[in-house]
Write a sequence for this structure.
């Protein structure tokens, strides 16, 4: 009898609180999904250098994306193509990512039409230390990568170096003070990813893009 | 145990402060205190979770089978935290992204289960609510104190506003070791201020 009472008690409260969380989830999940979608669109537009108003809501952003971005698949990953208002292609964007200090870092790398220059970079996912490694998501850090010219023959050198301020490497961006590990790990996977992308140059050029609606 | 609302409040915030007297909730005191704004959201989250979990556990206290206390308390706490987590993701997505796993980890915050078990399971609902809120505020006072110093020394800002003078930032304040030093200092200072009421070793009253 006691056993029966205990089991039914647990069932009852489990049922009640599961209902509470399920209810909250049901009410809030459309909004959460929308936030997530908005964030992803913002990342993509930022990487591709497509301007959008800061106050744009989800619908406006989706509109801008539909008019300026085409998506295709390359080796099972999404790659993106940006178009200007006249419908001329302006940039590519590729997913990048690798090991960070605490966990995986993911991002998008945008290259120009000839795949010779970085147009932009955004880090979309990371679990680095807030205030240190996580500063890779700050604008000043990401902006440094813009307009870096990629040497076509890499040799032993890096495409991009993330190091301290006064070092004299070519294609250097400032590392983050106090986040040496994150900085050098970003450098590592970024260079590997650039090499991988440039190796697929021909395939990328062969992609048949479904160009977005022209204005 | 006769307790007045005033005493409950005072004990939670100062006399029996969860962080520097009971030494609970240290994990989050170390993890989220390098930026004031994040800390503030975390504190509000904890006050909310603690007070509602306490009142709920207290309402159910007479029907909860004795040996199922912990499992049902955990269930209650987890439910409130999940609601809070969803709420933050829906309305404060940026803060939620920065706090990362720490909101979810309120479930395992020792203060919450500790107060539910030690107080709410034996006291009336609204007194438990008060105890929960006071403990939450006590936790917040300590965390915010630590956060203000860590952000000021580590970043040269307070809640994002720059300090009016320049100095070399202390990177150690941004990472966990800085929090250990700050926490130790807070415990030291508060215990020193409390020295009058400190029972002499060996003569502690039961």
């Amino acid at each position: 009898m006691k056993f029966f009472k205990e089991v039914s008690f647990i069932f009852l409260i489990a049922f009640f609180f599961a209902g509470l969380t399920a209810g909250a989830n049901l009410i809030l999940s459309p909004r959460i999904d929308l936030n997530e979608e908005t964030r992803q669109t913002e990342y993509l537009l930022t990487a591709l250098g497509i301007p959008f108003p800061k106050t744009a809501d989800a619908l406006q952003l989706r509109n801008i994306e539909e008019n300026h971005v085409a998506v295709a698949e390359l080796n099972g990953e999404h790659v993106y193509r940006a178009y200007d208002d006249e419908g001329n292609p302006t940039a590519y964007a590729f997913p990048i990512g690798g090991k960070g200090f605490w966990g995986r870092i993911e991002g998008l790398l945008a290259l120009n039409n000839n795949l010779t220059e970085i147009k932009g970079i955004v880090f979309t996912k990371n679990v680095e230390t807030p205030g240190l490694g996580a500063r890779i998501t700050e604008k000043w850090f990401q902006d440094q990568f813009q307009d870096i010219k990629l040497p076509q023959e890499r040799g032993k050198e890096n495409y991009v170096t993330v190091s301290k301020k006064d070092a004299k490497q070519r294609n250097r961006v400032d590392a983050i003070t106090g986040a040496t590990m994150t900085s050098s790990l970003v450098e590592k996977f970024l260079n590997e990813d650039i090499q991988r992308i440039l190796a697929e140059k021909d395939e990328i050029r062969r992609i048949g893009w479904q160009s977005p609606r022209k204005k | 145990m006769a307790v007045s609302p005033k005493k409950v409040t005072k004990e939670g915030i100062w006399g029996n402060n969860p962080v520097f007297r009971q030494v609970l909730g240290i994990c989050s005191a170390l993890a989220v205190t390098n930026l004031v704004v994040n800390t503030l959201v975390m504190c509000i989250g904890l006050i909310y979770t603690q007070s509602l979990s306490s009142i709920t556990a207290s309402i159910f206290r007479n029907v909860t089978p004795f040996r199922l206390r912990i499992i049902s308390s955990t269930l209650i706490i987890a439910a409130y935290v999940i609601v809070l987590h969803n709420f933050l993701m829906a309305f404060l997505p940026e803060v939620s992204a920065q706090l990362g796993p720490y909101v979810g980890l309120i479930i395992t915050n020792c203060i919450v289960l500790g107060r539910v078990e030690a107080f709410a399971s034996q006291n009336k609902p609204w007194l438990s609510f008060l105890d929960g809120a006071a403990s939450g505020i006590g936790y917040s006072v300590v965390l915010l104190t630590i956060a203000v110093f860590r952000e000021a020394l580590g970043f040269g800002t307070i809640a994002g506003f720059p300090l009016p003078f320049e100095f070399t930032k202390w990177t150690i304040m941004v990472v966990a070791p800085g929090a250990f030093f700050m926490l130790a200092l807070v415990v030291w200072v508060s215990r020193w201020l409390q020295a009058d009421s400190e029972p002499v070793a060996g003569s502690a009253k039961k």
About this structure: Helices of chain A lie at 2-48, 58-68, 139-143, 180-199, 201-206. The beta strands of chain A are 69-74, 77-83, 89-99, 104-112, 118-125, 161-163, 172-174. The longest strand of chain A covers residues 89-99. Chain A touches chain B at residues 2, 5-6, 9-10, 13-14, 17-18, 20-21, 24-25, 28-29, 31-32, 35-36, 39, 127, 129-132, 134, 177-178 (CB under 8 Å).
